[in-house]
C-alpha cells in the first residue's frame, strides 16, 4: 500500500476515491442489492470519501483514537509508534473517511492467518465516526471498504469484537458467533 500522498484507490473505488457501487453485478443476493442501493443513495448526496490513511492523518486519527480508548489510558507516544508501524505493513489497513473539512472517521483493520478458515481473516480492531457525523452511512462505508480490502487479500471472513456497537454490525449483515475473552498482560509500561 502506498501510504504517502494520494494513495492508490481502494478496491472498488475510483482514483478520485468515489465508490464504484456496481462492481459485483452478478450478485443477486437481495441484501447485497439493498446495500448497493443504499451505497448509491449515500454517495449521491455526500461529499465524504474513503481512502487509505497517510502520515498526514496522524494527528486527526490520534484525536479520534483517544475518544475510542476505554480499557487503557490513551498514550499519544504509544499511538504514534503504532501509527508508523501500521502504515508500514501490508497486513494492516487504515481507512479514513474525510470531507473537505477534514477527517470524519477511521477504521483500523488487520489481516491475520488462520487454519480454521482455510486462509486469512480480516479483523476490525477499531472504528470510530465523529459524533456529529454519525447516522449518515459513514460507518457502513468504512466497513464496506474494509471488506473490499479483505476480499482482495483472500480473507475468508471479516470479524470483530464489540461491547457497545453490536446493532451497527448486525445492520451490516454481521452475526453473533463467539464470546470474546481477554486477559490484560502485566508487562505494559506506559511512557
Ligand atoms: C458505531 C459507529 C462507527 C457507526 O457509525 P455511523 O456512521 O453512525 O453508522 P452508519 O450511519 O453507517 O449506520 C449503518 C447502519 O447501522 C445502523 N446503526 C448505526 N449505529 C447504530 C446503533 N447505535 N444502534 C442501532 N443501529 C445502528 C444504522 O441505522 C444503519 O442501518 P441502516 O442502513 O439499515 O439504516 C459510530 O456510531 C461510532 O463511531 N460509535 C462510537 C465508537 C464505537 O462504538 N465504535 C465501535 C467499537 S467496536
Describe the structure.
This protein is α+β, with helices and mostly antiparallel strands and 191 residues long. It has one domain: 3-Layer(aba) Sandwich (Aminopeptidase). It contains 5 helices and 5 strands, in the order αβααβββαβα. Strands 1-2-3-4-5 form a 5-stranded mixed sheet. Strand 2 and strand 3 form a beta hairpin. Helix 2 packs across helix 3. The chain is globular, with a radius of gyration of 17 Å. The relative contact order is 0.15. Bound molecules: coenzyme A. The site of coenzyme A (COA) has 18 residues, from strand 4, helix 4 and helix 5.
Number of E strands: 5
Question: CATH topology, what is it called?
Answer: Aminopeptidase
Number of domains: 1
Described by the principal axes of the CA atoms, the overall outline is globular
The count of helical stretches stands at 5
**Percentage of residues in strands:** 15-25%
The name of the CATH architecture is 3-Layer(aba) Sandwich
User: How would a textbook summarize the main sheet?
Assistant: 5 strands, mixed
Write the element-wise H/E pattern from the N-terminal end onward.
HEHHEEEHEH
Give the SSE layout.
Layout: H1 30-44, E1 49-52, H2 58-68, H3 76-87, E2 92-99, E3 102-112, E4 121-129, H4 138-152, E5 158-160, H5 166-171
Parallel strand pairs: 4-5
Antiparallel strand pairs: 1-2, 2-3, 3-4
The structure holds coenzyme A.
Task: Offer a quick outline of the entry.
31% of the residues lie in helices and 18% in strands.
